[in-house]
Amino acid sequence: MGAGSSTEAEREPLLVPSYVETNTNPVNSRVYGRRWLVLTLFSLLALMQGMVWNFWGPIQNSAAHAYGFTKSDIAILVLWGPAGFLPWLLFMWLMDKKGLRASLLLSTLFMVLGAALRSIPLTGQPLRRWLIHGGQLLNGLAGPTMMSAGPYLSTTWFAPDQRATATAVASLFSYLGGAASFIVGPLIVPAPNDTQALTTISAAVSDIFIRDRIQLVMYAELAAIAVLFGAVLLYFPARPPMPPSVAAASQRLSYRSSICRLLSNLRFLMIALAYAVPTGVIAGWSGVLDMVLTPAKVSQVDAGWIGFWSTVGGCVFGVAMARFADSIRGMLKLILVLMLAGASLASTWFTLTCLSSYTHLPSTSAILYTSCILVGIFINSSVPIFFELFIETVYPVPEGITCGVVTFLGNLVTGLLLFFLTFYCKDVSWLNWCLTGSCLFSLVLILFFRESYDRLYLDVFVSV
Description:
transmembrane transporter activity; mainly alpha; Growth Hormone, Chain: A; 75% helix; SLC49A4-like
């Protein structure tokens, strides 16, 4: 429906693939039941990586009492996630040359080391803070694989009519981990009671109790990551014995050629910006959501529930839309336009509501909750649809390299946002305007984007 055709230069590797020259040797394809186990292990690891990354933002008030963290410290702890994307080329190269198993094992090892490092129960506060920062950075180094390998996994293991759904599950579980931290942290770690006149002794006891509860959560996360690392070490094949589709078996561009093709493709750069700007802004915005909602007199627990439902709603809606895209193909652009239009309206509503003293709009808890949750639902659910459209646009560039580039750009936007937050952390209302502007910017780019479906063409027509 309205899908434009790509240029001859863009379709050249597809129109003259190596396997067409030898029609006597057709590609045999098969799907395996073990693909669900592979998807489950990967998704659970992405879940834990997201939980560890977003651990400190939802309990910023408690962390300030337990470890003396300031708002700038919390912003830096969240910033270590995007900073972990700096060596993303290494992980993409490893995935392209050795398969997903090698890249996943290295990433999981970083997660285990990071979780262990920040869980060391030292009494000296300065050294303990350095260990916590180091652990967050090591966990961030697992981000390139956990956040960008979903489409590679779905193409390697799943049939064409299940690819978008598998991409949605693998890609959104990292966001689901961030949502879980909104609940686990505030429910287990008590918020400090600053309204009571506490004595020095009672305040010290309260801080020790908060610190013990934080330590309990970190121990639990370390145990879960260690168990998953053992499971991946025992069983996680790099690829199935036989490919599930013609596209999975087709010849791809080399690593260097892929990077050059992506950087010279204006259509890809256009849609990459449309993805990176809103998803990068909302990642940084949700990482300090408690800080954003504090001026609106929203408690730490309530802010956690808002972040939880906005992300969970986005994951559920994203899987549903991916399933719809699997059943009715060639409509990815239309789906994205509707999602981004909804995100633009919801973010504008939320921003103006937070400025009710100037706009005189009604500002109730229900309105804040609804508008904030809708923003998360529309933006987070667009991630797997974007991934599928990336791959269709630049095929035959390998999926891991394509999604590695765009997730790096998204985390670059997040990093820049959090970097500025470390300097401008007293009044954070500018974050809401950044969110609204990013949604409108992305919507305009998608409206002018000319879509094409080269991989779908191969599976549907060439295979027949």
